[in-house]
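Input chain follows. Return structure tokens only.
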Amino acid sequence: MSYILSGIVNLFVGIATVILGLRVFFRLFSANGSNDFVSWIYNTSDTLMSPFRGIFPPATLENGTVLDVSAIFAIIMYLVFGAVLLGLLSLIPDPRSVERPKIRRRK
């Protein structure tokens, strides 16, 4: 059971990291927000960003591009939360590996 939960945690953290990483990349290189894919990434990442919004202001670089520091922080936090959850899940014993007492039959 814990291996299924571990897979779900890994899948969620992986997807969240990719989506937030694309958000950072697109904002850094001033991607066209009216493009359907870029717009979808921004909308999806807004949901993932909601707990972390406003912690850090976005940094405007010399060439006018934006470094989304909050999104980078969100990536780090999702990775940390995922690692903690995986550590906790590893404490749950796998029922398939627990030895069961053998029943001795009388002859």
